[in-house]
Each structure stands twice: as C-alpha cells, then as structure tokens.
Amino acid sequence: MLTTFTTRKAMRKNCTIGLLGGIGPWAGLDVHQKILELSEHKVEQDCVSIVHLSYPRDYSDRTEFLLGKTKVNPADAFVKVLRSMERQGVDVAAIICNTAHASPIIGKIRSQLLNSSMEYVNIIEETQKRLYKDRVKTVGLLATKGTYQFGLYENNFRGQLIVPSHTDQERVHNCIYDSNHGIKVKHPQVDQLLYEELQEIGNKLVQEGAEALVLGCTELPLLKELKNCFDVPVYDPNQILAEALMSEAKVISQQKRKPQIKQNIS
Q: What is the spatial distance between Cα 49 and Cα 93, in angstroms, rounded to a whole number?
C-alpha cells in the first residue's frame, strides 16, 4: 500500500523519484536501471528525474540492529538522506532494502518525517499487493535473517507464507552476506555455488507447497538467472518497486500539469 509522510506539495510539472540506495549499492543500481527501462522516453530530456543517494558507510547493518548485535538504528541515517531528498525536490521516495521495513526502523523513520512533503512507496507492501492481485495464496520466501525474524512479508499477507528451516535461513543469509562468496561483496562476479544453494532451498519450499517464490532481499534479484531455476513463478520485489514508483510518478506528474485556477484579488 502506498503510504504518505504527509500532504504532497506540487512544486514542479514533472515528478522526481528518490532512491535511498547503498543498502546494498548494487541493489540500488538494479532498481535505478529498472526504472530507466520502464521510462518510455524518446529523448533523454523526457526521461524521469531520479535523485539516487547512496551512502553505505553511513548505514548500520539492518539485520545486525534487529538481532541486537548493534545498538545503532539505521533509521537515523536514513532520515537524514530522506530529508536531503526532500530539499532537492523529490516527490516520491523508496528505501531499496526489505529488512529496513521492520517496525523498529521504518516506524522511527515515519515518526520523524510526519511533516515531509514526499510520498513513500514500501517495497514489501507493493510485493504483497502484486501477490494478492495475482491470486497467489501460498508463497515461499528467500530473505535475510532479519526479514524472517520480524515476519515482514507475513505481516498483512493474505495467504500462507512458507519459510526455510532455521538451518536453511542461515544458508540464504550467507549467500547474501558471506565475505568470501556473498552477493553483497562479490557481485557482479557470480559464484555458481550461490545458484546451487538457493535453488536447493527454493525447491524445498516448492515441495512444501509454495505456488511462487519471493526474492525478499534486494541483492537476490542481482542473480539474473535465479528466476529460471524454478518451476514456479519467481517475484522480484526490485522490479515491482520500480513499477510502483513509475506508476506513482505518472500520477503526480499528471496532477501537476492540471491548470491552476487563478483567483481575482479585489
């Protein structure tokens, strides 16, 4: 569901999208590229405007915070970046990270941005909406330990969510974070081991009844061939987020182009 920090201010004729990237950096680029691919421009001047801010050194790890391994809430750094976007005229923004939408993080962000003029698109809510639209009832989730522990995709999902065993959750997490072969540090060099690990775990979820799989960490869609490794549909939240941002950008642009009614001053 699209959420709003507060009432939007119409300032320009065209909408500007804000991407809070760097969590991780390659995932931010992935969503940025997908937005450009959706932009139906014929000349570069007609392309959608994007403010993409990526400050990975400023953000504490979301999962480590949620699991109590650090007391530094990344929400504080995220708020600073979102405020910067607002000053630059961003109309609709998104944080390109699933785990960042756990309530201890996103709740603090919302409380500090009550007076913001920006719209906000939530990657998890948009994915849930797509699953509901497609009438998918049983879903298998590949994600980080933080996303699993806080039930981010389970909350408000109108169906059944199947998650891996605790051992396999650790394996998925390592595919993302491992310092030797994890996606966060090794992309774009891809270790075939990652495909084998994730395919094995995903197939277990399918065998348990999953009608579809969700790549519930923004790093997982970077494995471009992963969606072809299964006999069920694979949902890419990065793609869904890009589409939702573009859809909202079109709505905002149309509203800004409506003629203003001038009042006579007497």
A: 12
